[in-house]
């Protein structure tokens, strides 16, 4: 530490900047003669490095395009329409989403037969894809892969595919395809010297897209004498026999089987210098560096003090406004501090709101659980019966809470609520017919409707239509209009058929309370329960606004 303090004593930022300027300028002045002699070699090395970097930059552009296509495939693979096997809806949604792009999506089975192709209207007869080898390679590897360039059967042009294998049927793979000429718009020689060309090469050594004076068309084989030299991840190739007075840079695209290359003539500028220019330029360099460092030091010192003052005020809990300086990075720090102070204030408010919501929802759940246990305790004839009844009702309540938690209490679709509660009775699922247009329920409606559904299904499994194999249940909902009620109404109907003869119970239990009184109160509607001989019929009529999330 003493040695460090000796060379770097406590001093102002201005002193250190001036010292740094002198330390940089003097060695440059001392060794400039040697640098002039080596400049030509350095320029050549720089050209080689920049050539490799330009090839790498082009590879990153192509990589972004392929990654975007891969991301699109992942999103499409998880779409509800595809999961449900609704290929027509999936075709319409995908075609709409990619309408402004030059990309097309193909769904194929394991043999390569096209199930849909957004180049064509859905339902148009389609054959096998042209490049089945790329499909089989992706299916074998289990990874997203880019194919070699080939002639597409549907488009008739040079195209390439990016394939996402799936483990589902019938859609075994999703393919996103693009014309090679459209990819060629990303291959540019902008920023390169005149006379330079650029190209993208696939795994088999054919040109996918190219630009520049070389004028290579898609599908053209690249020079086979050069391809074996592409052994590293990136580099340069120079051979006066193959490429006279030219330099070639290449780069592999990480994670893909393609490569990018750029090549063109080498231009060398002559180096002219004199000792007089060396001495005058060196002295001027030192003076300008010292003056510039001093001016920068003053500005930086003021900026740092302003930022420090902002940080102090933020530490005291204030929301601070960003200061305006001439240093762009300092302005960014000031804006970040200002945003952080505002975000901290918002976070504190949000935490208070979350705690209030947590207390509110916990009280509601505890109140519901207490009421449930009181009702069940009155009817239970033993501890075991009481435990089983409580566990069954809590299981239904937990299913609703898990659904809401997965959606961050923002509401859940009606279909998901119905499905999750009927999953508790897998042996009877095929006996239940469900119809109705889906929509998103409010959080409270998810819990209350879930309780009613769970009670109806439990009662039916024990005593009703679901207790026998031939029994059937129809659960439906639809909009209704009543002249004296201008607000939109929804009517839910649970109707059982084919079960044991129904006899109206002599007393109302907890289940009857849930499906009748609780449901009517929770949705501010009306509930009708008919114990018909052929089966139970339960009808809930309520305002749509009490159930649907805004």
Description:
With 550 residues, the chain is of the alpha+beta class. Helices cover 47% and strands 19% of the residues. It has helices at residues 2-7, 13-77, 80-83, 87-97, 132-141, 180-183, 275-315, 328-379, 383-406, 414-422, 443-462, 510-523; strands spanning 103-108, 114-117, 145-146, 150-151, 158-165, 173-179, 197-201, 207-211, 234-237, 246-252, 259-265, 412-413, 432-435, 440-441, 472-482, 485-497, 526-532, 535-543. The strands form 4 sheets. Strands 1, 2, 3, 4, 5 and 6 form a 6-stranded antiparallel sheet that branches. A hairpin with a 5-residue loop joins strand 7 (197-201) and strand 8 (207-211). Helix 9 (383-406) packs antiparallel against helix 11. The chain is flat and about 115 Å long. The chain starts with a helix and ends in a 7-residue tail after the last strand. GO terms for molecular function: ATP binding; protein histidine kinase activity.
Q: What are its keywords?
A:
alpha+beta, 6-stranded antiparallel β-sheet, transmembrane helix, 5-stranded antiparallel β-sheet, 550 residues, 18 strands, 12 helices, ATP-binding, flat, 47% helix
Q: Which descriptor suits the 3D outline?
A: flat
Question: Low-confidence spans: pLDDT under 50, at least 5 residues?
Answer: 268-273
Tell me the structural class.
Answer: alpha+beta
Number of beta-strand segments? 18
User: What is the helical fraction, as a range of percent?
Assistant: 40-55%
Nearest-integer average pLDDT? 79
Order of helices and strands: HHHHEEHEEEEHEEEEEHHHEHEEHEEHEE
- Termini Cα gap: 66 Å
Q: Count helical runs.
A: 12
How much β-strand is present in the residues?
A: 15-25%
Radius of gyration: 37 Å
Characterize the main sheet: 6 strands, antiparallel
């Amino acid at each position: 530490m003493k040695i460090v303090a000796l060379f770097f004593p406590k001093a102002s930022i201005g002193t250190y900047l001036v010292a740094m300027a002198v330390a940089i300028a003097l060695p440059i002045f001392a060794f400039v003669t040697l640098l002039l002699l080596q400049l030509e070699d350095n320029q050549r090395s720089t050209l080689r490095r920049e050539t490799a970097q330009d090839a790498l930059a082009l590879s990153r552009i192509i990589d972004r395009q392929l990654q975007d296509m891969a991301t699109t495939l992942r999103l499409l693979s998880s779409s509800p329409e595809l999961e449900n096997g609704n290929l027509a809806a999936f075709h319409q949604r995908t075609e709409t989403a990619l309408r402004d792009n030059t990309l097309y999506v193909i769904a194929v089975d394991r043999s390569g037969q096209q199930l849909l192709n957004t180049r064509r209207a859905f339902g148009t007869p389609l054959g096998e894809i042209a490049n089945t080898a790329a499909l089989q390679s992706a299916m074998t590897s289990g990874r997203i892969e880019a194919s070699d360039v080939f002639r597409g059967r549907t488009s008739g042009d040079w195209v390439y595919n990016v394939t996402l294998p799936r483990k589902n049927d019938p859609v075994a793979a999703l393919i996103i395809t693009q014309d090679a000429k459209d990819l060629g718009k990303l291959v540019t020689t902008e920023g390169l010297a005149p006379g330079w060309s650029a190209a993208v090469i696939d795994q088999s050594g054919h040109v996918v897209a190219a630009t520049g004076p070389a004028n290579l068309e898609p599908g053209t084989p690249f020079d086979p004498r050069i391809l074996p030299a592409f052994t590293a991840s990136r580099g340069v190739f120079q051979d006066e026999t193959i490429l006279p007075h030219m330099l070639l840079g290449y780069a592999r695209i990480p994670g893909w089987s393609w490569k990018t290359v750029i090549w063109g003539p080498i231009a060398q500028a002559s180096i002219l210098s004199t000792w007089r220019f060396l001495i005058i330029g060196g002295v001027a360099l030192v003076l300008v560096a010292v003056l510039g460092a001093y001016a920068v030091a003053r500005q930086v010192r003021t900026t740092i003090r302003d930022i420090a003052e902002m940080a102090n005020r933020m530490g005291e809990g204030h929301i601070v406004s960003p200061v305006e300086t001439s240093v762009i990075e300092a302005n960014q720090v000031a804006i970040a501090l200002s945003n952080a102070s505002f975000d901290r204030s918002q976070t504190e408010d949000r935490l208070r709101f979350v705690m209030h919501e947590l207390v509110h929802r916990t009280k509601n759940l505890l109140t519901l659980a207490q009421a449930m246990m009181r009702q069940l305790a009155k009817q239970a004839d033993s501890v075991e019966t009481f435990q089983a009844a409580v566990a069954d009702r809590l299981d239904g309540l937990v299913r609703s809470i898990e659904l809401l938690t997965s959606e961050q209490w923002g509401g859940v679709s009606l279909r998901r609520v119905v499905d999750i509660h009927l999953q508790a009775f897998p042996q009877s699922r095929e006996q239940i017919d469900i119809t109705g247009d889906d929509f998103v329920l409010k959080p409270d409606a998810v819990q209350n409707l879930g309780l009613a559904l769970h009670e109806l299904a439990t009662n039916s499994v024990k005593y009703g239509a679901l207790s026998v194999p031939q029994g059937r249940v129809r659960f439906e909902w639809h909009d209704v209009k009543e002249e004296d009620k201008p607000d939109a109404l929804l009517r839910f109907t649970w109707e059982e058929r084919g079960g044991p003869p129904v006899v109206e119970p002599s007393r109302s239990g907890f289940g009857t309370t849930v499906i009748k009184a609780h449901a009517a109160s929770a949705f501010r509607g009306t509930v009708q329960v008919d114990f018909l001989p052929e089966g139970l019929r339960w009808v809930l009529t309520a305002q749509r606004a009490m159930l649907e999330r805004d």
